């Protein structure tokens, strides 16, 4: 009857994995199933826990990286957190230099600085190069070509 506790734990961890979608809790569920198998084979309680722990760690170290690699090759996973902000446009709201400043980024005001130490006045369009802690490291955005401007040529016209 004790194997039911192991199977129940595995099912609970499997349901929680459906919420987290991180492929960690399902590895613990595999460990719980291994503990249940150890119980069914008549192993003492300490051995059951050791088997469950070893199986869970083995699944985490061996199976999870392989699963994540194959999942990422099939599905584009959306960037989240600070990784989603890289390359995003922002607007300077307070002078930005190599030490301090403020930019409006994704609807929020962020502390910012420039990587090269240049000074950018308010209203300047910038692009996020990287995020360091709670500070956006920005660079001036390249100006967009005007639609009414003539195309640039390699030689100067006389």
UniProtKB/TrEMBL annotation:
Keywords, sorted A to Z: Membrane, Transmembrane, Transmembrane helix
UniProt KW Magnesium keyword: no
Pfam families assigned: NfeD (PF01957)
Domain annotation NfeD-like C-terminal: ranges: 83-138
InterPro entries, sorted: NA-bd_OB-fold (IPR012340), NfeD-like_C (IPR002810)
Regions that span the bilayer: 44-63
UniProt xrefs under Gene3D superfamilies: Nucleic acid-binding proteins
Span of the signal peptide: none
Protein name: NfeD family protein
Species per Swiss-Prot/TrEMBL record: Cellulomonas shaoxiangyii
Phylogenetic lineage: Bacteria, Bacillati, Actinomycetota, Actinomycetes, Micrococcales
């Amino acid at each position: 009857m004790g194997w039911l506790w192991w199977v129940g734990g595995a099912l609970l961890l499997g349901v929680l994995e459906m919420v987290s979608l991180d492929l960690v809790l399902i590895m613990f569920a595999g460990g719980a199933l291994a503990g249940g198998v150890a119980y069914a084979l008549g192993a003492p309680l300490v051995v059951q826990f050791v088997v469950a722990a070893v199986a869970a760690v083995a699944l985490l170290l061996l199976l999870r990286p392989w699963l994540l690699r194959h999942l990422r090759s099939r599905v584009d996973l959306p960037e989240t957190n600070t990784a989603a902000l890289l390359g995003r446009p922002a607007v300077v709201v307070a002078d930005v230099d190599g030490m301090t400043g403020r930019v409006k980024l994704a609807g929020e005001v962020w502390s910012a600085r420039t990587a090269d130490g240049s000074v950018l006045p308010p209203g300047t369009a910038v692009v996020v190069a990287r995020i360091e802690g709670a500070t956006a490291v920005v660079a001036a955005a390249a100006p967009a070509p005007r639609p009414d401007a003539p195309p640039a040529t390699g030689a100067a016209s006389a």
